[in-house]
Amino acid sequence: MTIPDEVDIIVTGGGSCGCVVAGRLANLDHNLQVMLIEAGESNLNNPWVYRPGIYPRNMKLDSKTASFYYSRPSEWLGGRRAVVPCAHILGGGS
Description:
The chain folds into two domains: 1-37, no CATH class; 46-94, no CATH class. It is built from two helices and four strands, in the order βαβαββ. The chain has helices at 16-28, 47-50, and strands at 9-12, 34-37, 66-70, 83-87.
């Protein structure tokens, strides 16, 4: 796939909402050039993404398909930090 020099609309974030918005805009007017930008790697034909049996491996801390965000230490967690995994692939974590 080649990246065009000019597009009409850029949608940033390839999560559920970004994919829906880009798809609907593209279907609305077939003359529009819509670009969808996702920060994560390409997950096309990646078995780690589409095979349910191995999908939980994406939650490993060294995963290439997820990012992990940490809260500040919380007294409600006994001084520990909460870990929030976020999908870093097209389609997001939904």
